[in-house]
Design a protein that fits this description.
Layout lengths: L2 E4 L2 E4 L1 H17 L9 E2 L2 E2 L4 E4 L3 H6 L7 H5 L8 E2 L7 H10 L3 H8 L8 H11 L1 H5 L3 E4 H10 L7 H4 L5 E2 L4 E2 L1 H7 L18 E2 L2 H7 L6 E2 L3 E2 H8 L7 E6 L3 E7 L11 E4 L6 E7 L3 H10 L4 H9 L9 E5 L12 E5 L6 H18 L10 E5 L6 H11 L3 E3 L5 H9 L7
Parallel strand pairs: 3-11, 4-12, 13-19, 19-20
Antiparallel strand pairs: 1-2, 2-6, 5-7, 8-9, 10-11, 13-14, 14-16, 15-16, 17-18
Amino acid sequence: GALDLGGGQVHSPPLMWVEALDLLLANLRDNGHDLARLRAIAGSGQQHGTVYLNQTAGPALARLDPSRSLADQLAGVFSRPTSPIWMDTSTTAECRQIEAAAGGRLPLLKLTGNTAFERFSGPQIRKFSQSDPEGYSRTDNIGLVSSFVASLLAGRLVPVDAGDGSGTNLLDIRRRQWAPEALQATAPELARRLLPVTPSTRAIGEISTYFAQRYGFSPTCRVFPFSGDNPCSLIGLGLVEPGSVALSLGTSDTLFACMDQVRVSDSGEGAVFCSPDDINYMALICFLNGSLAREAVRDQYGLDWEQFAQALRDTPPGNGGALMLPYFAAEIVPHVPEPGVVRQNLDAADANANVRAVIEAQALSSRLHSAWMDVPVTSLSVTGGASANEEILRVYANVHGCPAHRFQTTNSAALGAALTHLDAPLG
């Protein structure tokens, strides 16, 4: 579903998401699931993607005909046929322009919790307004993937929640409302194209009659705001108390942490989002050299994963002072633009020492580059493929000085969306 348009531009057609919703619900209905039992519905959407709607969108959502497909009825509501998504990195110039117009990189960081970032929504909006001013003038509403899908279900345009909204470079992260200074720095008349930010935990209304009549939902089924996949994952991973941290050891390693107040990295080493619990905040730090680096070391010495674990058992903590900076590819945190592996007091022929060096480097990096959060880490939940390795967990536990345990969950974003609204009043 992602279209590589060249020059770092990666888009998806929002009409595809419309069709997918009909297909999903038809599949559930046709396989005997009684959708009338659902009392409420919420969800998560791929963070940062923007959807551009013209003035016909609101009326079209309000008069959906249950005898026809969504795609047939909504094909004409887009002022832009494709949506830039999180993979799009084409807005470097727009990021610098937004920072300059907002008074500088640091003021924008303090206001929104983030420096201007290519993958975020605000720079994408600015690029559209400058590259296609006619299309931008036809745009009556700009939503995110999450709010767009919630709008389909509600039968009216739905606001963005603060969790997903904080991934735009447009949100005053402390007030949890759009920041006028950021809006003005981004695009002309942007404020009128955005609905006010809504609390994540407040229902936005009952489900559209389209879904009640076509799929058998109860007419009283409530729709809650959708949030972004990253903020929802915070809840799905159980990170609801400040000091609880999760680490996903995948192709890239991602650290998620719950904070009770906004703290930012002046060097831009992480993103800060509002938690969908409407109380706390989320820090997210991405280390690009995750399993990429672990597998490079494993393969360099012809090891399997059990031999890799044995190498950790056979070497002492601290590795006798042997160190590695495992930048097999350009690194995000810390910012290392050119790849290159650095060894100090480390014999490249010593397989065991190199295994420990790469794991200790990753664990130490996760601690050093999360210090700006100023959150005492009380528990570390580790997920992803490498979490199956007890010896890797042991290194992380030693480095962070707290228990590290394997946390196995799938679809943490969807689980988090459900858990966020578990205790919400249904009216």
